[in-house]
## 1
Amino acid sequence: MAKDTRNMSVRLSDEDFSFICEFVYQSTGIVLNDSKREMVYRRLTRIIRERKLNAFSDYCQLLRTQGDEEKDYFINAITTNLTSFFREQHHFDYLADEELPNLMANKRAEANGKKRLRIWSSASSTGEEPYSIAITALESMRSVLSAWDVKILATDIDSNVLATGKTGVYEYRRIENIEEDFKQKYFKRGCGQNENNVRVNKELSNLITFKQLNLLHEWPMAGPFDVIFCRNVIIYFDKPTQQELFTRYYDLLAPGGLLMLGHSENLGAYQQHFDNVGRTIFRKPL
Ligand SMILES: C[S@@+](CC[C@H](N)C(=O)[O-])C[C@H]1O[C@@H](n2cnc3c(N)ncnc32)[C@H](O)[C@@H]1O
């Protein structure tokens, strides 16, 4: 019979931990090791309480036998979604000061008469990254926007964070440190019960499409992308997975396109295929 596990401590055996690590690796590419055991324990304890299970082994069995819904729920619980508006500001400065002026000066119009800009935020978490990209694009391109077809694709494996991104509602404190002018232009403060929240405006959300995508699976997009943000996600993967992803990012970038990595990430052996043009900013050669 299921017990109330609220006040009991449940042991995570080596066998169950190994199963969880392998399951997460196969499903997401995320490598868990002993240093993550405590984190796994905390997050799994929450789930087994919710499921009113007695032991981690019962949950492992559930993962083995249940369908995608339980698997998605589990993956959402395991992913680390830390992000913020204008995180690693230097990437947005590079877009505003170098890349967008360069594209505005040199891009040719497509057959439909518009110039095309495509940016992919490939581990977008709750959306702060793609919205920061959208603000940067609007600030740089406003005067020429009618001549452009601008689209930002935001993808993540985690369906919960995507739902937040799609809604575009954030606690006010999350935008506290961004420029005052951006707060006024792009966010609307809630009232009454919602006064601690802000909602992104339509101008931003119209530029972005949020979609669930596991980076390990097939990518349905044709590209090419002018800029790809792949920040603070490959750090969770092993080297072979990273190198495979770099090849795929490279193939999806336009010649001259940019790949942005997170502050503690690098291209490793794949560096030879790109030019390093700034701090964790890499350009596919023309
Ligand atoms: C730490 S957040 C980074 C968010 C944002 N890029 C930034 O730098 O602020 C890492 C994100 O990667 C996502 N992620 C992890 N494994 C993934 C996979 N296999 N495919 C797609 N997204 C994944 C997680 O769900 C999480 O939202």
## 2
Amino acid sequence: MPNYKLTYFDFDGGRGEPVRIAFHAAGIEFEDHRISFEEFVAQRDAMPFRCAPVLEIDGTAITQSNGMLRYVGNLAGLYPEDPIQALYCDEVLGAHEDLMHQTVRSFGLEGEELKRAREELVDGWLTTFVRGFEALLQRGGGDYFADGRLTVADLKAFVQTRTLRAGVLDHVPTDLVDRLAPGLAEHQARIESDPVVVAYYASRT
Ligand SMILES: N[C@@H](CCC(=O)N[C@@H](CS)C(=O)NCC(=O)O)C(=O)O
């Protein structure tokens, strides 16, 4: 078994969290290297593309969280074998990456500027993506995004929905998802209570 080290911020969200859950689901030991923002700033010049997460496999540093998630998902049996279902899964992963790019534009802003940027985000891209994720969920049958079962797409989506509904982003109403996409809110509860996810968080307490 290779040696795995995942470097990412010390919070239960973002691009790194679904990869951590998938590692746990696969029963694969990995070093969960959690860093503060200050440590990231100090270390980023040594990181490929100056970005986190970074997955080191036997010392080789690899970037791109969705690629990591597919890789670990394959090992965990959480990535579809059927090409169409795999494509459905990939679409969800890619759309989340697109949404994150829109969201991070408002990071670092303050006061009125932040409020204005977040309100534009809520009325614009967030509404588009939240409705879009609901549509993808319904295409998958309503319970899961692909393959009629838990896949890495569900891990990616539930982490994002949880963040949006928890009020982590100032000026983003915590009921936005419930109003626009009730199926997505139910999906969060479904995935949170999945034995795979329950076991992961139990392992961290
Ligand atoms: N496409 C990359 C994007 C990585 C990325 O942008 N990471 C963020 C953290 S989630 C980052 O390092 N941001 C630092 C910055 O932009 O200053 C991936 O999916 O891993």
## 3
Amino acid sequence: MTFQLDSVVPWGRSFDEYVSMFSLTDTDLQSRILGCGDGPASFNGILAGRNGNIVSCDPLYRFSAEEIRSRISDTAATIGRELAENTDEFVWTHFDSVEAVIETRMSAMEQFLLDFSSGKRAGRYIDASLPQLPFLDDAFDLALCSHFLFLYSEQHDLGFHVRSIRELSRVAAEVRIFPLVELDATPSRHLQPVISDLESFGLQCEIVRVPYEFQIGSARMLVVSRVGSVPNA
Ligand SMILES: C[S@@+](CC[C@H](N)C(=O)[O-])C[C@H]1O[C@@H](n2cnc3c(N)ncnc32)[C@H](O)[C@@H]1O
């Protein structure tokens, strides 16, 4: 049986996982960063605490911390069960057990929940959804998208992926997306057509190895960059 979730769920990774998934350098971490689809990850809160320049956007942010907290506890039970039933679909070097995954993620999400209300007031958590974002051209140097685009290729079609990545490239000079596999760890059906479209639109695409692999065969990110001004849609 493959690892399946009924729909996109609130589940958040740790700061260290973000650094590995996107091969983030100290210079990257000092740039203006957009985390798109960050959900309840701790990346924003931790980076802001280190004087980073970070904004996250996600439709989840229309809810209160307490509403998000209760959805997280429903999700944790489902994910723990799915992981335990499908251990052979994952690489157990970063984590050595299902319990370690759940503990790391629950601790990251608790850090998010503690930061969320003040971060929202400070404008670091914005309720917004791809494929249209409420940011000016070039508002960011780097946009990161973890575990949303490509992972949910069955739920979101090629057109959605193309519009979303063009939009991310409008607001940020460089876009990094991880992983490039679907929920069952097969390569995303949209990856090659998306790259062809983006290249014909004048964007540069590169698939880059990263030092993070949890789903088997997933240790690659897509880097989309533009040279010069924002291409016209
Ligand atoms: C599996 S979670 C990943 C969370 C985080 N990026 C991480 O890796 O820990 C996917 C996130 O995508 C968000 N999402 C769903 N639809 C979206 C959209 N149209 N635009 C942006 N984010 C969306 C969900 O609310 C959810 O928080």
## 4
Amino acid sequence: MKLYNYFRSSASFRVRIALALKGLSYDYLPVHLAKGEHQQPGYSDIAADTLVPVLELDDGTRLSQSMAIIEYLDEQHPDPALLPADALGRARVRALAQSIACEIHPINNLRVLKYLTRELKVDEETKNTWYRYWVRTGLEAFERQLAQAPASLFCHGDTPTLADCCLVPQIFNGQRFNTPLDGLPRTMAAFDACMALPAFQAAQPSACPDAEA
Ligand SMILES: N[C@@H](CCC(=O)N[C@@H](CS)C(=O)NCC(=O)O)C(=O)O
């Protein structure tokens, strides 16, 4: 398999975690978002939405959207499972994952932040305030969701799930923009539990072939 991705892309990071947890190898194809490589002619033939990640299967089929990719991998390579066996558990894990992937991430994506500065002429500090506000607000909601269920090692249960694949990259991004992460005990405990695992370590931005300081 080939993964079109970028070391700082949190949606890519989600897929890298899933691949690492499942012990699946792949070719790492870097797409430098900060240099606009995803907007170069040709990339839209690979990714219709011109975003990363894209997972190319051995037969050339290309999959987009990190959550769809992870669910595909989970169906094709069920061990270890990234979704619980029970329907209610799956609904909770998907809700937690979507709280990050659908509520927090889209309004803080690179193209949104660029639009704020380039088109709306928002200054750098105001843009960062926007970023931190939405990440913090979203993580507080995430924390309340976690607190609705009994304590567990990871976001849901004692093994990592799709929810953890989404949480960890969001925390990395939040830290990069100096988002306050205090007062989120369940969230940060799950983050710490994930980062104690080799798969999460191996998938992190600094471990990527295209990593930059
Ligand atoms: N919902 C998509 C989001 C994909 C996405 O937005 N990727 C970002 C990187 S994390 C990207 O390619 N951004 C390019 C841009 O904003 O110009 C997914 O989960 O895969």
